[in-house]
Amino acid sequence: MRSASGQSWKWTTLLLVLAALLCFVDRAASVKENDFKKCHQSGFCKRNRAYADNALSQSSTWTSPYQITPESTSFQDGQLQAMVLKKINAEGGTVRLPLTFSFLKSGLARVSMDEERRQNKDIELRHNSPIRKERYNEAEKWSIVGGLDLDKEAQLVHQDNTQIVVKYGPEAKYEAAIKFSPFEVEFKRDGTTHIKLNDRGLLNMEHWRPKVDKPEGEAENGEDESTWWDETFGGNTDSKPRGPESVALDISFLDYEHVYGIPEHTGPMSLKQTRGGDGNFAEPYRMYNSDVFEYILDSPMTLYGSIPFMQAHRKDSSVGVFWLNAAETWVDIVKAKSSVNPLSLSKASTSTHTHWISESGILDVFVFLGPTPQDLTKKYGELTGYTAMPQEGAIGYHQCRWNYVSDDDVKDVDRKMDKHRIPYDVIWLDLEYTDDRKYFTWEPNSFADPVSMGEQLDSHGRKLVVLIDPHIKKQDEYVVSKQIVSKDLAVHNKEDNIYEGWCWPGSSNWVDCFNPKAVEWWGSLFKYDFFKGTLPNTFIWNDMNEPSVFNGPETTMPKDNIHHGGWEHRDVHQLNGLTFHNATYEGMISRTKGERRRPFVLTRSFYAGSQRLGAMWTGDNQADWGHLKESLPMVLNQGIAGFPFAGADVGGFFGNPEKDLLVRWYQAGAFYPFFRAHAHIDARRREPYLLGEPYTGIATAALRLRYSLLPAWYTAFFHANRDGSPIVRPMFWTHPSEEGGFSIDDQLFVGSTGLLAKPVVEQNKDSVDIWIPDDEVYYDYFNYELMKTQKGKSVTVSAPLDRIPLLMRGGHIISRRDIPRRSSTLMRFDDYTLVVSVSKSAVAEGELYVDDGDSFDHEEGQYIYRKFSLSDNVLSSVDAEDRDTKSIKPKTWLKAMQDVSVDRIILVGAPSTWNKEEVQIESEGKTWTVRAQYHPAEKGRAAYVIVGRVGARIGADWSITLA
Ligand code: NOJ
Questions:
Q1: Minimum CA distance residue for ligand 1 atom 10
Q2: Which residues form the signal peptide (predicted)?
Q3: Per residue in 463-477, pLDDT tens?
Q4: What predicted TM-score, i.e. pTM, was given to this entire model?
Q5: Could you tell me if the CB of 199 is within 6 A of ligand 1?
Q6: pLDDT tens sequence across 223-236
């Protein structure tokens, strides 16, 4: 019996695999760079670029046709209202554009502009379309969670017939000068102009107008305006019932050479110019969340997610903008040298001019005046939310491939990882675990017993993640399909009927998560009694949520599809992935009544605000060195754009990595906040134990390094959760005064640990040069070698295949757990090791944050947050928030933590006065001594001390006298 059914599931699996392969071959053949629009193939991008070319070619005579009527202005409680008039013809015809300027308590300024006629619904829609007539104005509802309180102290300090000047922000050090004619805004901090809006006159709000018919013969100005209404690309025609409605604006960052952000793209973190020229791109950076199969490197082409937040940086100053628009958006960037007085000795500085172009929606821009990168990430997080505190295991290692073919396969991998003593926390199931690609079901033969699979994983603290996509197979007998149709919860087509498209399951409908009823229904599908076979250790992967539609324009949904509330897909496309991620998150937060656990949901598509809901990964990369290399700037850029829980597929999705590439990728992956190996269905198996020695051992060492440092990583997540600090930090962010680091995007600091890593991303390299940002001392993490560093110069670090270039900056205290175990859960109550990296002046500081990694009890004080410091030869631990921890009644986890102690302390860079055999510890009213071992400096290695079996409780205050 057993073997007969075994045979049959093998055949089914084989057939499934073949079907998937065919599907892939089909797609791979059809989706290429040319399947995605270039600017000249996108009507509104082309028109706005042409508008810019026209304006800039006549820069001395060009005047922007937008002006504020002075009588229309009013200022109250931190808000300025005005009417902008757009001149539309020589006869003096104008279009009215209501403008609101909000000065926020947080120090941000928000500029919003709408179109009165569309606001009043005074337009005619074409094709009898049932959609809304207004410009989309609900992005705020999804992206913004706070920080909108008005700064009622903002003062109007000057007003005449030409401009209004408002002072606002902390100590009124920010200033906005709003010029009337043409409309232009100048933002100053401490008297210096940092940002200008519309100073190049590229503001363009395409106002409503009736359709123009195709002219007979040649169009007057060479431009056939009739094409502004229907647009065809790749065989799909977009019907544009509201006609042209783009919104564009130029934003200049004066004397700023570097701009970062606006993920997701490949290429350097410091963004390139986009108007051609040597080494520059010729296309604008595009943001239009898409399933870009086989994406290319070093390109402004769009990828799966977008965050329209840009930071500009120069020595000692950071400023930025957040362009809140959920439609397709392109950004052109040019840099220009400022003209300098020939008599002046100062260098010509470079300014960055950007041009933002969105297809629809209102104009809505937030301006950040810094002055530090930290201010920007914090304020941006106040607005859009901070990274969710993760499920504890989610920051460990994830073992994934498309696909683990059966529950037995999963159990087998799980056992083999143990046999080879390779730690991991989560194993993943891709598409093929489902019955015929119907989500919330299991393939009955190969996954006949998901419960025993989940239980085996749970028995050593491991988790399972299963894929749930937004397309629902159309099939009458499939209950999810039946319900989505009968409850009318799917996205509609332009005729307002349920939209049907093609994805993995064949003909499908797409859940419309803009609809609150759909969110509620979707959430109910995750209940244990609906999604049978799932357990509390099952979590979710949301893929294909751009959404990917195989037969749709640019592999996504037609723009004239209709969502809940009557908005066109065009208006909300960028938010689509976030709303789906949100619906899954909402379902997962409580799968049984009364339960509230932290969900773990991975998303491929994202927008500003997605960081509140889980992790992202960079999609379908390739198993080559180039993709490994580009993963670092991509992950770093995610961090400074407010969504730091990011990683790339370790090993590369497509193809079969050589063994050296794979182990180098493990070493890099150990420094991604989200650390997951994944592989395409067509790729050979590559679980780390299959590599053979020395490769298995090298990959395992990288994994063990990650696991021992999990307390430091979790603390870095905590900082991201509290103030938006990136989890892995680029040099400009940690050292904003050091110009030499502003373009560096291949080395990183882990949180505030002072750990400086530069993974090897090139083949046959056995050393790397790490750029050193300051005058501190640096030690090699592994052998405590005192590096011969010099501020602003690089130091060469040896990196044979089994070594990760990793330094410790002097002045930090790093928390670790050193007992190797199978999963993070099994390490929960292990004692800690503290590594003190002693600074030049014999001081150091560090933090440890820890909570139960699963519930929301930390919101009620059930956590430990310590601050460690070394000064005057005393190392001590105090509560980082000066809380009265005794007043917190400990629940189960916090109680168990009372038995967890500091075990070892390693002090690297120890002065000879610490050469003692024992040291004294004082904690909780008691004093005791423990053994210390001093190792004098030798052969380039720094002196260090190991203090053994310290025994002070991790949650208690303690101090150790070293000399
Ligand atoms: C596309 C995703 O990017 C990839 O990671 C996944 O394996 C496939 N979809 C199949 O689900």
A1: 431
A2: 1-30
A3: 999 999 999 999 999
A4: 0.95
A5: no
A6: 678 778 889 999 99
